[in-house]
Amino acid sequence: MNSPRTRFYRDKVNGKFMGVCAGIADYTGVDVLWVRLGFLVLAFSMGWPFLAYFALGFLANKKPASLYGDRQEQQFWQRVRQSPARTAREVRAEFRDIDRRLADVESFYVNSNPRLSAEIEKLR
Concatenated DSSP letters for 42-103? Predict the structure, then answer.
């Protein structure tokens, strides 16, 4: 089952009419102005996007108020929806960096404290 943060929702809070364009903007991370302009160009040139808009407006769920904790969390989930593999690589790289920095701290304290170093050697 999909996480609630990876689903499409209508965004009635930031929307003008039914919240579909604002929902698309939230889902993709694209500025809502560009989504609205793109929709208008497509709708007036082809016609069928009006039907798709109303279908999404009636069928899609409203965005929960507490979907994101803050702006940083919202941007993270937008990146996950755009490219899950790339986001997983970025998270793994962050954890490797944290692991490296912790190893540096550990090395500093062990090397500067001979008593701690001897205790660690006894445990091996």
Answer: HHHHHSHHHHHHHHHHHHSPBPPTTS-SSHHHHHHHHHHHH-HHHHHHHHHHHHHHHHHHHH
